[in-house]
């Protein structure tokens, strides 16, 4: 009985350690995501692009994620990344500071990045 109790205690301890690591790791990962969103937005604006580009992409992804068929395509992204609404909300003041007078080069993007059909 004593060995069984020790094994149960060890298992509970391992589960608790794993849960804490997951929680701490997710927080660090989400902080990195926020930082990447901010830096990417500022870099795009500094390069002359419209700073609102990432916000528009995230809004499109948020809309797509409401469709059950499309939602499956996101896989674990929806559970391991900050919510789209949170990311968008955090970007609004950054975009406001950076400005939206930069260029939107959709035609160039479509011709160089998107695959031709």
**Relative strand content:** under 5%
Q: Share of helix among residues?
A: over 70%
Structural class from helices and strands? mainly alpha
Distance between the termini: 67 Å
DSSP E strands, number: 0
Shape designation: extended
Largest sheet: none
Report Rg: 21 Å
What's the mean pLDDT score?
A: 78
Poorly predicted runs:
none
Explain the overall architecture.
The chain is an all-alpha fold and 117 residues long. It is 78% helix and 0% strand. The protein has six helices and no strands. The mean pLDDT is 78.
Give the SSE map.
Elements: H1 2-46, H2 53-65, H3 68-74, H4 77-80, H5 84-98, H6 106-112
Helix pairs in contact: 1-5, 2-5
Core attributes:
single chain; 117 residues; mainly alpha; 6 helices; 0% strand
Task: Offer a quick outline of the entry.
The chain is mainly α. The chain is 78% helix and 0% strand. α1 packs parallel to α5 (84-98) and α2 packs antiparallel against α5.
